[in-house]
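Researcher: For the annotation table, I need structure tokens for UPF0434 protein ENE75_23685. Please keep the output clean. Sequence:
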Amino acid sequence: MDHRLLHLLVCPICKGPLTLLRDEAQRPAELACRADRLAFPIRDGIPVMLESEARAWEFDAEAPTP
């Protein structure tokens, strides 16, 4: 995923910043919003920024503070 795109994207719910989460192979897997505690999937390199596609996310266990 292009880092320039990451800086342009915001949470579709609260318009807050997103955190990039990576899978075990260090590939971009999700974009997460700390405020809403939701993680939006990245499928085939494209972020799916729909609330209905998001999963609940507990940031304290899964990602370090940026």
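Researcher: And a one-line annotation?
Model: The mean pLDDT is 87.
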